[in-house]
Amino acid sequence: MDMGVSVMHRNIFGAASTMLLRGLYIVLMHIALTFACPRGCLCTEKNGVMAVHCTSRNLDKIPSDLPEDTVSLLLDSNRITRIPNQAFKDLYRLQELDLSKNAIEVIEAGAFHGVAEGLRLLDLSSNHIRSVPKEAFSKLKAKIRLSNNPWHCECTLQEVLRELKLDPETVNEISCHTSVQEEHTGKPVIQVLDSGINFCNFHHKTTDVAMFITMFGWFAMVISYVVYYVRHNQEDARRHLEYLKSLPSTQITKDFDTISTVL
């Protein structure tokens, strides 16, 4: 009987110890996450997936102290204005990045270097983006949302969009806020491109016209200078001829004799 009670006590003690250790582990993990988490953000981990929630935290830039094992990063509804080069370079496990509903105007060429190939979702909707460098989205395989931005429709945007995997649910909300061809303003970019419009051809034509105007301007300047030079010399020759006519005939003969001698 005493043996049974002793075994039961050991089992109860073992179970209590296990629960205590689990509780201590949870507390320690919570403390570790609290210290590793950017100020004002909330970090959670579930099944080995680290999620960092920085939604509506009045941030004006991307935090620099993000946990390196972040898988999901929510930075939506803040006041971020730019994405600098290598802003997420240490986040080697990053798969989801939400930057929607900010005030982003500038995306630098190397903004997503180091994470582009691992990203599965990139949300840049509802910002102030007018254009992006072609290099910014190189190697990007993620589904991307670019809707509700004041895009300027021109050759670079066309080349960028052709390389991206756009979210089919929001693709028709990517519209031309302005355009190199005014008749496309306000229309969905994809609709314009599908109609056969090629902004790059228009760009080349515009460049050719600019070069022609420049060359014509230089040619006009050269012609004007030649005309001025000829007229100026004609005026000098006329004045010299009138001067010779005004001289006595003897002096004219002497002048011609002098010229002949020199020749």
Automatic annotation (TrEMBL):
Compartments in which it is found: Membrane
Annotated family: Belongs to the LRRC3 family.
Protein name per UniProt: Leucine-rich repeat-containing protein 3
Keywords: Leucine-rich repeat, Membrane, Repeat, Signal, Transmembrane, Transmembrane helix
SMART domains the record matches: LRR_TYP, LRRNT
Stored SUPFAM superfamilies: L domain-like
Membrane topology: Single-pass membrane protein
Domain of life of the source: Eukaryota
A single GO molecular function term of this UniProt record: signaling receptor activity
Domain LRRNT per the UniProt entry, residue ranges: 36-72
Membrane-spanning ranges: 12-33, 209-230
Source organism (scientific name): Lepisosteus oculatus (Spotted gar)
Coiled-coil boundaries: none
UniProt keyword Transmembrane helix, yes or no: yes
UniProt keyword Repeat, yes or no: yes
Main location: membrane
Alphabetical list of Pfam families matching this protein: LRR_1 (PF00560), LRR_8 (PF13855)
